[in-house]
Structures are given as C-alpha cells and as structure tokens.
Amino acid sequence: MKRIRLGILTPSSNTSLEPLTQSLISGLPEVSVHFARFSVTQIALSPDALGQFQQTHILDAAKLLADARVDAIGWSGTSAGWLGFEQDEALCAAITKATGVPASTSVLALNKALSAFGIRRLGLVSPYLADVQDRIVANYAGIGIDASAESHLQLQENFAFALVDEATLDRQVADVVAAGAEAVATFCTNLHAAHRVAHWEAEHGIPVLDTVTTVVWDMLRRTGVDTRRITGWGRLLQEA
To answer: Pick from 39, 54, 67, 191: CA 20 to 30 A from residue 13's CA?
Structure first.
C-alpha cells in the first residue's frame, strides 16, 4: 500500500486542528499528517491582523513541509473567508510553483463541498467579530450562496477560539438551522467541532461541513484515498 504524507499549514496559536486531524485520519494506516506553523494570534480586519496572512509567511512554512516530501499541502485556515476566495486560489498556485506539490485550503475545499451538495443557503457558525463575519457573508453572496443565517461569538484572540465549549457550539448550530440553513459550516479551524459533525447531522438532518475536515477530505481525494473508509465524521467523507 502506497504511503501518503499530507502536509498541513497551521496557525501558530491553533490548538484544535492538529489533534482533530490526527484523529480524523487514524483509521487510515497508510496516511500520515505533518504540520508547519506560521504566526497567527488574532482574527480581525485591522492592518496588523490582516498582515499575518501575507503570502510570503505562508510560503516559508509550505517549503518546510515540502522537505518532508509530502504528497499534498493544505492550508487549514479560513482567512479567505474575509480576504476573498481569490487569495486562496493565488496561494495554492504559489505553493505549487514553489514546491511542486499540489495544494488545497479549508475554504476552497468547503466551496467544493457546497457545490457537491448543491447548497445555496448556508448556516455560518464562527467565533469571529461581527465585521469579520459580515465580510464572510458578503463573499459568499458574491458566489451565489446566502450565508445570512449566521452565528458568531465576537471573539478576536485566536487562542480563545479553542476554548469555546460544546454547549455553545450546539446552540450556534441549532440557531442557524432554525433560521433555514440547508447546510451548516463550522467556519474556523480552531473550533473543537469536527468530531461533533455526525451528532449535529443526526440531530438536524442536514449536512454539517467543518473546515478542519474539508481540507483533509480534499487532500485525500487528490491523493487517491477513498474517504468512505473514514466513518463517524459526517456525510462529507461518505457522500461527496
């Protein structure tokens, strides 16, 4: 069986995505995941916060992953939600040009999943500030997806996102479902949410797409791994 190595770009203050990603792929003995961090400590629209996502910083981390001869590189982060989807498209092209390795991101993979499920009304769950959330909603409107059914927590410090408890996430998901969402996105890779997706889907009867899971799903597909072998993590891995 061919060995598959996935390289994941990680915000420096994120404490959720690494253990969740490792758990997600634990039933795939031929797959390993390797991480590289770059500095991200806050999510806001201020110049210093936006500057954390300059392409040069991310490329430096991607090049280190390429040293491990990974088969794919994924940015497990949601910055394109407020910066614009074209930012991730340009980032993936730059990573592949610099390393020769195919690249994906949480947000571009989420958008693929929304297309696969035919979603036009998205419930957007995040920990972010109101102006960040508004920017995400506007960017989705630009591609024909109504994300006005939304819930956010008005948090800015990236480390704090991982401290959001299950009861809060349960309420947020229920609120956007009640507002008419056809699917829910837990839109932040530092929310401890991916392991709850199957529970929410069973409770509410619609797809739930977590941004830690979406990038792994896309990378596995690109490397020829059958994601249906992963059970208990939601409909995306089984159906799309």
So the answer is: 67
